[in-house]
Structure formats: structure tokens, C-alpha cells
Description:
The structure is a single chain. This protein is of the alpha/beta class. Helices cover 30% and strands 19% of the residues. The strands form two sheets. An eight-stranded mixed sheet has the order 3-4-2-1-5-6-7-8, with helices on both faces. It has a six-stranded parallel sheet with strand order 11-10-9-12-13-14, with helices on both faces. Helix 1 (18-24) links the parallel strand 1 and strand 2. Helix 5 (207-215) crosses helix 9 (312-322). The longest helix is centred in the first third of the chain and has 20 residues, at 72-91.
Amino acid sequence: xxxxxxxxxxxxxxxxxxxxxxxxxxxxxxxxxxxxxxxxxxxxxxxxxxxxxxxxxxxxxxxxxxxxxxxxxxxxxxxxxxxxxxxxxxxxxxxxxxxxxxxxxxxxxxxxxxxxxxxxxxxxxxxxxxxxxxxxxxxxxxxxxxxxxxxxxxxxxxxxxxxxxxxxxxxxxxxxxxxxxxxxxxxxxxxxxxxxxxxxxxxxxxxxxxxxxxxxxxxxxxxxxxxxxxxxxxxxxxxxxxxxxxxxxxxxxxxxxxxxxxxxxxxxxxxxxxxxxxxxxxxxxxxxxxxxxxxxxxxxxxxxxxxxxxxxxxxxxxxxxxxxxxxxxxxxxxxxxxxxxxxxxxxxxxxxxxxxxxx
Length: 359
């Protein structure tokens, strides 16, 4: 039986992330999914949740130590989590499974568990404080999946078996012919509606958005998703910027189709990142015009189909131009989304694991 033990960087969510999307489609393997310990003050989730016929979710009993945490107490936290993982492996009769790691912090488990091989799915650029752990994890991996060319370049000194595996989308969710206006978007008006799906926090660079909103007051800029107080504070007083709050995952396609243009903003805490997030692939599935603000030091992740800008004035210019774009682009974007389906990504993963002897 194919067995995967996944050490996840984030909890199992109603709105699936990259790890969930890939593992949910590896239906011929039994999977134990270990999510991080809850934050201080949060309740411990139910253990052994069966979220798919082949996936069981457990929560680690203690937070994993960080790079600067090397005291005896921190080591005991790690040992407690490793012992718990081993107990659950024994309970489910897991014998030397594939160890699927999603963050450098998981390098601490390499000498504490029995496994037949390691997969490192690198979905983001990690801070330099994790460099030693990430290098160690990459060296020990039979296969490394990297979400962008930049990550391939970053990790290649430590491993020769690195596969480019960008993010993806479920295009079937965007193929329905009729779309309703979700309750959160009722009453939204404006000559043009420009939308972004995703969390707004203090690390999202809002300056390009504010520049465009001030220069085009007749446009409505729709921020769909949760917002922290530091994230929302700079937006106060800008009447044509609307925050909807959290969006039901089932309403995401309808929300995106309500917009005339879709955009994304750069994160201040990830300079140099060339990763196209999953939301951009969802944008592609709608066929709508797309403008993203990016770091000027990185190449375009999806040239021709996605317009890029580096600052507020460039963002505004790109948005204006997008409303008069080539009429063939919507079809090409939808085709790109079809080729980038999570099903295709998971098929690529399965083929590589079989070719390397892990499956």
C-alpha cells in the first residue's frame, strides 16, 4: 500500500491550500496529515479527523521549535511531537511511508522518524533564518517540488532532482454558465469593479492600490477576504475601496465573475518572490483581465496573459490598458487554467514519485 506522512505548514482548511489540493488527488495512497499545533489559547481540534476517504488529520501536540530555539525545553517539545507522530504511524500500521515535508522546520524530524524517502514541496521563499534547515531538508530529499523558477534556482545547489511544480486551480468551478451575486457583494457599484481575492494584512503593499483609487474615484476596488487591523488601517477614508470580510469558499467563482478586472499586490515580507499564487490561477480561469504588482527584480511569472506593474502609476496604467485588451486573451487565459489544473499537477507528482521509486 502507498503511504504518505505529511508534515503540513498550515492547518487543514475549508478553502484548500496547495498541500491539500495535491494530496486530495493522490487517491491511491493512504495519507496521515499532521497540521501544526494550535496557537496559544486556541482549543485543540479533534484528533483523527477523516477529511477524505484516504486522508486522516492529526494536530501536533506542541509547537515546533524555531531556528533560534535550542534549549532543553524546546527539544522536549520536538520530541513530544515526534513521539506523537510515531504513535499515530503505529496505530495506522504505517511502515516507512513517504515523508512529505512542506517547510524547513520539518528538517528536525529527519532523524526521528522511519521513512522510505523524503519529498520537500517548497511553496514559498523562506527567510534566511531557515537557510540551514532548508538546505538540510533539500539535500535529504529524493524529490523536491518547487513552485517557481526562482525557487528551483535557489534550491538547485543542494539537490539535482528538483521539479518545477507551479500552483494550480480547479477550473471546473469556473465553468458554470450562470453566476449569482453573493450577499457580500450586493450593492457594489462603480463604473468599473476591480477585485482582489485574499487576506489583507500589514505585509501587503497597499500603496499602488491607494494611488489608483485616488486617481480613479469612479472605480470601485473590491478587497475580498479577511483583513487584520494593521492591514485595513491605511484604507480608512478611501470610499471607493470596499472590504468584504471573509468569503465563503463556495462563493469565490461568483465573486470573481462580479469584477471587471482582477488584481494582486506584492508582499513586503517576500522580496524577490516570483511565485504566482493560487489566486492568480483562479483569475485565469475566469478569463478576466489581470494586473499584478510585482517586485521589479523578478521576471513575469505568466507573461502575455497577466499584466505586471511595479508601482502605483504603473498599476493604474496597466489597469486602464487592460480594459481595451486583445479579445483573444480571455480564451487563452481559460486554456492556461485548464492546463494548470490541480488534477494535472497531482498527476505530475504521482508520475515523478513512481519514476523515483517512492511509489
